[in-house]
Amino acid sequence: MSFSVWLGLLAICCLGAMSPGPSLAMVLRHTLGGSRLHGIVCAWAHSVGIGVYALVTLLGLAVLLKTSPVLFNSIAVIGAIYLIWIGFQALTSKQGMQQKLQAGERTSLWVAARDGLAISLFNPKILIFFLALFSQFVLAAETLSGQAIIVLTPLVVDGLWYTLIAIVLSHSTILPKLRAQAVWIDRLSGIVLIGLGANVLLSLIK
Fold first, then answer.
1. Are 27 and 116 in contact (CB under 8 A)?
2. Which of 3, 141, 172, 206 is buried deepest, with most CB atoms within 10 A?
3. Nearest CA to 125 among 22, 205, 56?
4. CA dihedral in degrees (9, 14, 15, 16; nearest 10)?
5. Phi, psi of 105 (to 5 degrees)
6. Rounded CA gap, 75 and 123, in Å?
7. 35 phi and psi, to 5 degrees?
């Protein structure tokens, strides 16, 4: 893979990682409701899911998923239900994240990792992203090292971006202000996640 081709791949991966969506909401919730470490764990678990999709695309399985409506729709439905479930939990929470922290409650690192991984693996839009924009770079990966770059670039870019988000949000001058609005952040993230899940279900019905 030439350096110029890799730069194109890097640009696509950066744009994909930086686009706002349920992933950002999830890293935000675990950073505020847990700690900087919780946000970082969530970020890198999410990036593992991105790496899985990159590998799937490289192996040609993404095309198989897309041409198999039952399998693709099953993944989409599971993902949509998961988004709605997480959103409902946030929306109906009787205590905001700040109150839970004051009460000594904190989500585990395992939950942060689970949510980060699931939010990427069960998001059909990520599969569509890889099929539409990522597949073109697969042809340029003729060697094993090139194929490794194809998989590792989106994984590392995604992990570093959301790690940066977690670090910035958990800064001592920002975190207290965000936690002061924890209840509203819970509600807003809940609405966003439910809306995204409902949008996926509606797109399948159409």
1. yes
2. 141
3. 22
4. 90
5. -90, 140
6. 8
7. -170, 180
Residues near 41 by Cβ (< 8 Å), separated by ≥ 6?
30, 109, 112, 113, 116
The encoded tokens of residue 149 equal: 């770059």
| Confidence (pTM) | 0.76
Q: Count Cβ atoms below 10 Å from residue 68 Cβ, excluding itself.
A: 11
CA-closest candidate to residue 13, choices 136, 113, 122, 110: 136
- Residue whose entry in the numeric block shows the structure tokens 């939950």: 111
pLDDT per position as a tens digit, 161-203:
999 999 988 887 776 766 666 667 677 777 877 887 787 788 7
d(CA 94, CA 199): 26
Instruction: Give the pLDDT confidence of 58-113 residue by residue, as tens digits.
Output: 887 666 666 777 777 777 787 778 778 877 877 776 554 444 444 335 678 998 99
Joined together, the tokens standing for residue 21 give 């969506």
Place of tokens 């409701």: 33
